Amino acid sequence: MNFARTLLAASLLVGTSASADVISEHADSVAVTFYHDNAVATSDLLHPEQNAWVRDSGFAFITETRTIDLPAGPATVKFRDVTSTMVPQTADIQGLPAGVIERNFDYYFLSPGSLLAKSIGETVRLVRTDPKTGKPTEQDAVVRSGPNGAVFEINGKFEALRCSGLPEKLVFDHLPGGLADTPTLSVRTTAPTAGRYTVKLSYIATGLNWSADYIAHILPGTDKLALNGWLTLANFSTTRFPNAPVDVVAGKLQTTGDDQSVKAAPLAFAENCWPMNIDWAKRLALLNSNSISVGTGAPMAIMAAPRQDANETVVVTAEKRIEARQLGDYKLYPLPEPTTVAAQQTKQVQFLDQEDVPFERLYRYDVADDARESDVDAPATVLLRLQNRADAGLGKPLPAGGVSVFEQGTDGLSVFVGQNAIRDMAVGLPVEVETGRAPDVRARPRLIKSETFGKREDRKVKEEWEIAIMNGKPVPITFELRHDLYRGRAEIGAESLGHTSVSGRAVWTATLAPGERTTVRYVITRPD
Amino acid sequence: MRRLAVGFFVLSATSAAFAADPPQKLSITVYNDNLALVQDERRLDVPAGRTRIEFKDVSASIKPETVALSGAGLSVVEQNFDYDLLTPAKMMEKAVGHEIEIVRTNPGTGAQTTEKATVLSVNDGVVLRIGNRIEVLRDDGIPTRVIFGSIPENLRAQPTLSVTVNAATGGPHDLTLSYLTNGLSWKADYVALFDEKQSTLKLQGWVTLTNNSGTSYKDVKTQLVAGDLNIPDDGMNEWQRQQRRGSVRGAGTGGDNQASVADYYLYTLPERVTIAEAQTKQVGLLDLQGVEAKKVYEYRAAMFASEQEPSHADVDIDFSNKGKALPAGTIRVYLRDEAGEPKFAGENAVDHTPAGSELSVKIGEAFDVTAQPTLVSSEKISRSRTRYQMSYLLRNAKGAPVTLELRQGGLWRDGKVENESLPSRRIDANTLGWSVPVPANGETTLTFTVDSGG
Lengths: 528, 454
Prior knowledge:
The complex is a heterodimer. By secondary structure, chain A is mainly beta. Chain A is built from four helices and 34 strands. Chain B has helices spanning about 90-95, 240-245; strands at about 15-20, 25-30, 35-45, 50-55, 70, 75-80, 100-105, 110-120, 125-130, 135, 145, 160-165, 170-180, 185-195, 200-210, 215-225, 250, 260, 265-270, 275, 280-300, 310-320, 330-335, 340-350, 360-380, 385-395, 400-410, 415-420, 425-430, 430-440, 440-450. The two termini of chain B are about 70 Å apart.
């Protein structure tokens, strides 16, 4: 077991009397649970540079196990190297021998600007290099102003840093106090007895996200499909989670939007020099073009652009399947074995592998309320319908995600036939996946008669509809024709085919032989 | 740790300036939304007559219009808040008309020549008079150092408050400096570990203090005020406030013993703390064990309409905060997984809540419990009344039976139930409620017909 190095040092803290500093450099082990606010498309996860929001729409619950050696009496425990995107107010520490007096998260991070800001009034070394001989000369200088443009004092006289055109730099003998070189959570506690303690530090971290995807392969010559489900885990943070137990929580959690990691803008260092080094030709051109003045110039940020890792690693591990467990009213998918979630990495694992799932293929056409005689036969929507029940070959919770459907073509190669998204689907719910529009199955709606009757408020409209439906395919099909019932206010009168009411719609289902063309006729009575 | 800049004293004809000593007693009262009152007590040796005192360690986000300095035997003549930051460009601007030294380095030999120069103008370039010739600084691109004899008055490395006072007598004076500052905020963060089997909640509360004011405060007596003060432009709109109020179902009159000031609760941190710059600090607020709590599935429909897809029921945790008022903040609910490890299970906002209130915190939606309404028919009874026939299909894919609290809004005056498959109760004039049992791995259909009223 890899014990974290723990150091005991005399406290330099002011304001805490006789308190010892205990430093925990890193965690012994870490567990990661992935969450998201809303389902995201995997294509967006894989291209965070184009979809910056995916970094923020997911998060993780991190549990670190650390070993610390506590002295008896008051101590400040510094948990160094916590996840860079930690949300500090969510931190919780279990296993300390006494309560926590206070905990602090310092995010005054080290940057060229903050180094200078914290050194105001301090003596540093100014090093100038002779351009001819390359020989450096050093002088003690007192920093008089900070990152907005450095002014320093040598022997009672004042100069500005890097305004002379000479190579010069400041050298610091030590890091000024109060600057964190790594994200650190510190905790004040008072242990009754000295000893080695194993503590659990848990917190929410942003910048991690996940998505679910389904791949359905229609088995040739059957009405069954093979359904595979994959989880994609993305870590946009700069923290690596080595050999970590990982799980994923599916379902809709309430979030407040307040859990933001501390975005410590590194303090930029600007060289606000006086205007100088004038290029006359350029100057005249600028004046003529009435352009912005170059003189004082905006502060130049030294902030590094976020690293965009083009080479995302996709690790596929399909050997072991994952069974969904309950976490309250959510679904918890534990990965079968610990894995390493690297910084800026995307990882995929399989969670569903169902063979021979029966499905129904339907062709659907929705008659729009305002449909008038159209001279074009509109293509019907192709739809796969599954029953998510164990006795119907499935019966698994299906987290929201994209479904890609493949079918075997005549040459035996797989053909991608369409893609759609599903919502969180509990066991028992019918699952419908619209894959596209069928050019060979068409419908033409016609309102052939519309008349009003009744008086004033009771006036009603009677509509006679005639929908031609046709099957141009060489196989028989099931056709589903739907008409909205005007929020429950419409009634179906005479009809050529019996309807059923489903979720406030009238549905006519017909089986069409290859090449068959038929007409469904019905009368709707609705308030005007 | 904060470092005090060494003050440089500026003498003017009428007044002597003092860099004030660090505060001896600092106390801060923090309000919820980006506001704090800083009270700074110190003893200062002030000579008789007019003196300018500089405070370099005040908050960098001070609201200068709120500064008040008081002390027996002192009257304030004038106060200034200077935030003209010291930069090389500003130094050069202020040097116009003054003499500087320039040091040129010969790029060929490395030899340095020093000359005195007078700055004539700083305007898209620095124009210098050197002896009896006029040149533009570094017009030839040759490295040239500029050496200034002093830092001009009023240019400072950090914003500085200066107050000119008139003292009747010389000697030590006790001063109190008070001001409002932005950049300090606090809220409460609650950790609620819910045990469904025991129907209990372990509720821990933390005060979270954030300091973005640009200044550190050492050994501060800290007080926190809970309550919605009227602050123009505090960045919170009425909708946000209502969202926050959403969790309180019934306000209590339980009477926490917490100290209060005016109409607000006041929390004092048990010991003096150091609030460092760019720090999030958390201090324990409360720790309640065994709070009775229950989980409730709820589905709310505001009107009579069909839904094409089933909707997941809300999961609420209902509990009462007996004996302890809860300042506004965020409550995070944790559940233990099958291995017994607590896992995050959703969070919600909590408003300032008096002790003994009934809280209902929505933590998320149930994956396995869904409701799908269908408007079977709607029929006009009179000009303003409609008869709605509704059917709700409630499904439960869990291995245990559940009770779903269904709320149907959309009733008007005289609205009534004509028939129903389960008995309803009237929640309020516009809302009907049903407690619908749904069997394990099963479904229940609730049907009812109502006269909407009108």
